Amino acid sequence: MNPAYPSKPAPQWRQSLKHLARSVWRHRVLYLMLLPGLLYFLIFRYWPLWNAQIAFRDFQPTLGVWGSPWVGLQHFLEFFNSYYFSQLLVNTLVISVAKIALGIPPAILLAIALHETSRRFLSRAVQTMSYLPHFLSWVIVYGILLAMLSPSEGLINSGLRALGLEPVPFLTSTATFQPVVVLSEVWKETGWSAILFLAALLSINPALYEAAAIDGASRWQQVRHISLPGIVDVLVLVVLLKIGSILDAGFHQIFVLYSLPVYSVGDIIDTWVYRQGIQNFQFSLATAVGLFKGVIGLVLIVVANRLARRFVGTGLY
Question: How far apart are CA 195 and CA 142, in angstroms?
Fold first, then answer.
């Protein structure tokens, strides 16, 4: 090459690409471990989004996605104008908010109790017993609830009859169905939810507790001024994730527990979509409702994250 005409430096984007390639090759083992998870999300999460366009079409399986006629917002308006829309929305929000409000405090209390106990064997036994309900299917939980709450042979109603009181139809009464749904969810998931808070507590520097003890702080003062502030970040993360899915009130649970007499308080968006969209083959309507839930969840989580960063100083991103 003629020294009188020096070569031009490579463009910045090309240098960045080479740097990225070298970094990927250097950490190729880690990327290979990450590959199955990436493929899962690409195939089962992101690729189906392409077919979500049937929410704006009158989808007919014989015509396919592209061949089905375009109808715009017709399915969204059909859902919004439905006679049951307000009832479905209220039921979904009431059950979801109650699960969040009543589900998080017991998980925090359980995590703190496990963290504070000095008897390791007792702590491990309680942990195991509290985790087990999470792995039970809602069909099995329904059997347990039926054995406890059945008007004829349930344990609780047998006790009420022994006291001279009338039995209560817990699972078929509009006054008691929602409390049963919320409390059964709390019982089933408290132990599992406590794992995150317990992990956050274990990550707190033990020197903080030692310094507080030297200064004369009691165990309650240590919990109040060290343990609780130490799990704020995890608490905000959990609340934000639950807010993002607030329109998912628990389809599997409701589908197993509810019946016709409690539709007015137990029917949620997902169960209505199952009946209208799946059983009646209205796939476009079901997809439209799914998109509606996704958009609302996205807006809620963005707004909640900004509020959390403003008032608490931490957020999801």
Answer: 25
Domain range for 133 is 75-311
Contact 283, 64 (CB under 8 A): no
The answer to the question of residue 302 being in a domain is yes
pLDDT digits (tens, 9 = 90+) for 189-207: 999 999 989 999 988 888 9
Residue 126 falls inside a structural domain: yes
Q: How many domains does the chain have?
A: 1
- Rounded to two decimals, the pTM is 0.83
pLDDT tens figures, 76-109: 998 998 888 999 999 999 999 999 999 999 999 9
What CATH number did the domain enclosing 231 receive?
A: 1.10.3720.10
Position 37 in a domain: no
